[in-house]
Amino acid sequence: MTNDPDARMDRLRKAARYRFAQYAEEQARETEASGTPASRSLDPDEVRAERRLRGARDMVAHANALIEEGDERGVFEHNPLRGKPLPDNDGRHDPDWWIRRYVEREELTGLGPPALALRKEDAELDARLDEESSERRVREIVEDFDARVVEARRQLMGGPPVVTPVRDVDVEIERWRDRREARLAVDRAATAEQAAADAEERQRRRRWWRRR
User: Fold this and answer.
1) Region label for 190, one of left (φ > 0), alpha (ψ between -120 and 50) or beta (otherwise)
2) Same domain, 60 and 148
3) Crossing angle (nearest 10°) for helices 135-154 and 169-211
4) How many domains are there within the chain?
5) Residue 51: its pLDDT value, please?
6) How confident is the model at residue 50 (pLDDT cuts 50, 70, 90)?
7) How far apart are alpha carbons 173 and 138 in whole angstroms?
8) Residue where a domain terminates, one of 24, 55, 72
């Protein structure tokens, strides 16, 4: 086999023309079989995208047909969710919803992709911080959380991407202080209210004894 660059380029051109001719014939056959025009573009990427779209439309039509058939047969009569929105469905696309629901339902810990575990931990982080009584522990917990988020972003282990944001340590400490002060204010108000109620009860008893 010759290593002449011109000869190699000529072979590549012939192979490209051959593939294009085959593709054009395939498009013509699809048009003739379906009676509808094929893709207006001969760009392979656009054609593949159009085929995927057609397949998705066919799948949706098939799913709708199965649902209508099942509804006619009464399959959904005793379904508690019939006519109601799906629980925990906020309208956003979440391809890993079934994993998240399974982990929550079974109360599993330490399992699943890091993206889901960190998302769950992020949702519960404020409550966890509120259990602490010192700023030092709050700082340690937030710094550890941030380090694990950054490490999970670096590791290419497959699964859903890690979209959980890191936390600003100083901001979280300030928020922890505000929540703690709010709780203390509520506790002080409840204590003062109880003390007033106790004092009123003592006054009532003293008046009763005086009448006796």
Assistant:
1) alpha
2) no
3) 140
4) 2
5) 66
6) low
7) 7
8) 72
